Amino acid sequence: MNENKKAYLFLFFILLIDFFLLLWVGKNLSISFYEAQSFFNPRDFAGYYAKLSVSLFGRSDIGLRIGFLLLHLCNGVLMFLLAKTFLKRPSDAVFCALLFLLLPGVNAGAILISNSGIVIFFSLLLCLWHQKTQKFPYWLLLIMAFVDKSFSLVFLALIFYGIAHKNTFLVFASLVCFAVNMYLFDLGIGGHPESHFVDMIGHLLLIFSPLVFLYFLYMIYRFANSKAKPLMWYIVVVALSFIFIFSLRQRVDIESFAALLIVGIPLMVNLYYSGLRVRLPKFKGRYKIPFKITLAILLCMTGLLIFSKPLFVVLSNEENHFAYRHYIAQELAKELKEQKIKAVRTEARMQERLLFYGIQKGGRKLSQIPKKDSIKIPIIYYDKEVTTFYVQ
Q1: Which residues of 125-142 are buried (b: 16+ CB within 10 A; e: fewer)?
Q2: Coil, helix or strand at residue 375
Q3: Spatial CA neighbour of 12 closest among 98, 129, 104
Q4: Between β-strands 364-367 and 375-381, what pairing exists: parallel, antiparallel or unpaired?
Q5: % pLDDT > 90, the chain
Q6: 175-208: per-residue pLDDT in tens?
Q7: How many C-beta atoms lie closer than 10 Å to residue 174's C-beta?
Q8: Do 29 and 60 touch, CB atoms closer than 8 A?
């Protein structure tokens, strides 16, 4: 079997394992308040896509999330194909896809109602098209102008790329698409100045993991000094600059804009392997140590996401769980139905979540405060009572 076939076979198995693991996680998650709002009152791609997913796969947690998971698998394939055009060996492209699939932020976006998946999809498709043909798909740019506000930064990157390569038509087309995107979407620039820089750094460290993010910054610096800068580098620099600058005065939609940074993964992998392969064998071991530590951290963070539900067993206070807002509602709705209760009155956030599972607003009151003659509804995970509700 040649190297290309081996690479595709490894990619298939990696995607298959990733699919079933994330499907298991998505099955156990409950819809959050913000996801419920996006589903019932869609205002962006994610909301409409969630409705489409439910209409195709049924109104359940799997039906809600499987559309985003399938998009995530497409992105994994696109990342492999993009890396294959940029890196020397097919095995390098497999590692690039694996790194993409292990990133905490990517995994979270694969099972939650989020625009990040579609932002990654179009960004990777654009870079892949240009990498293979050295031409720009202007029809794709026009579509992107109508999809999401994050693509305004892609158009800015294309303007800078066009100026650097003296491509007047690209600059003009990108300006038009940028104007259309600005007209359709609001970047939310304004309001009272308030720094969120530290919070933003924390978000980026969680999305990438600490060591990967530090190496990501190093990659930007190294490619800045190279003569031939690929389109991926321009997109990454513009997106990161926007996030850094505007987080000094306001909260930035990190989830959407940080998705653009994902196109820089092949650049990181290229930089790592270029540095590794020029070293003599006896010096390679020291160079591999940071890589092994980084991979171990990524696996641990991925494991925390996959086994997030069992974590409730070891926590004394369930609200300390990092994903608490994505649990409880599914099991609560099931218990209410078993008690033949089809409508309750409760606080607004839980009310919106229960509506997705068919529990209407009205009837008896639901709370976590016990009262005389109330019906006790315990929520139990792995034989541990995580929390308790009461129907009065």
Answers
A1: bbbbbbbeeeebeeeebe
A2: strand
A3: 98
A4: unpaired
A5: 53
A6: 999 999 999 987 666 556 666 778 888 888 888 8
A7: 25
A8: no
